[in-house]
Predict the structure of P-loop containing nucleoside triphosphate hydrolase protein.
Amino acid sequence: MDSDDKVKRILDRQVHGLAPDPFAKKSLYSYSTPRDKVIIVISFICAILGGVLNPLISVIYGQTVGTLGTHHQTRAGSPDSGPDPGAADARRQLLRFTLYWVYLAAAIFVLIYAATVGFYYVGERVARALRNAYLRSVVRQNMAFFDAHAPGAVASRIMSDMTHVQEGITSRLAIALTALATFSSAFVVALVVHWRIALVVSPAYVLMALFGSLSGARVVQYHREAKVASEKASGLAHETISSIRQVYALGIQHRLAAKYDGFLKEAGRPSRKALYLLGLFTAWCQLLPPSVHALTFWAGSQFLVQGGASVAQISTIAIVVVMGAFGIVRIAPAAQALVATVSSASVIFREMARRSPQDPFDPSGAVIEGFKGNIELRGVSLVYPKRPDAQVMKEVSFSCPAMKTTAIVGTSGSGKSSIINLLERFYEPTSGEICERTPFKSRILVL
Ligand SMILES: Nc1ncnc2c1ncn2[C@@H]1O[C@H](COP(=O)(O)OP(=O)(O)O)[C@@H](O)[C@H]1O
Ligand SMILES: [Mg+2]
């Protein structure tokens, strides 16, 4: 029982590694330098400011329309001939608003440019540092780690999962922040300008958020299903072409072509559903501005005739609510991508925290000096971590003198390569030891 426990402990250690490193880095930004952090903070502020400023365009728009309207009324009230009394005043005001527009456009351009460049710059650097750290941690792992992973899994983690992470912390984060700021600012502007009209039009936000997030999630799901099926199709094509001689020899071209067709059809179904949904969503987005305008001008006209709203207020709300609604619809997909980033990153961090029980870079432990090569196996048993039920070697003892040729002979699967695996320390023996006997000093060192 005792020895069973010991074997189990040895196997567990190889499969799960040592206790995870408590000081392992667990946050993406711990892979950034202080300079990166400064850039991120600046980009963060720029993205939010850029988003907040956007709806202010509608305020200037409303003011401009208001000024034009007032001037038109004054002009209509004054005699037809003779100089226009309010013209100079109106021109001055319109010039001021035009300048505001130019300033706003320049500010938004600079802010969004700075935020985008900043996020991409840091994201690229963080992803590179993370890729490096991941590869460094992977090459320290023991063989049981690689036995448990499919051959392409590590490479795909480095390529596709890291790309996921990189996208998340660059474009998605910038879009999410700007969109959130645009929506919040638009919401506040509408309430401040005329809260009653703003409330009448506010269902547009809810509809847009609901429709955006629901259809976005479904489209992603359909794309995923389509991707799985088309991967099967391309896998089949790859295998068929690479073993085309056998395919000809067996005369199975038609069968394989039919199978390929089946996979393509399987991929086509979710793709088509995604297409319909995407079409519906695009059309819905086109429907939104006229509907919001209609509702705003209808509600606004009610308040206007009662003297409770001005043309400027109504025009501002008509524009700002559309901006806010388009802001909200960009938040959901960006937020979903951020969640995917966090989950990819957490898998990566968990793997990086794994401490290998046979770490080639760990300098601690006994070092054999003056190694001669007199190797001796004493009662060595081996169970592979992936096959805990099979005893591959049972109390094997023999010695290989240095500078002599030793032949290990046996049937296939008898464990010859396993002895070499143990010598190379790819696996741990479940009992016994492998030693180097140094004849002159009569010392025994465990390999
Ligand atoms: N990494 C491994 N994980 C699980 N079982 C293994 C592994 N490597 C070898 N084995 C199994 O151990 C046994 C001995 O294999 P091996 O040492 O390769 O034999 P030989 O080299 O004498 O042909 C075989 O049953 C083989 O299937
Ligand atoms: Mg072999």
Observations:
- The pocket of adenosine-5'-diphosphate (ligand 1) is lined by residues 147, 384, 386-387, 392, 410, 412-418 (CB under 6 Å).
- The mean pLDDT is 87.
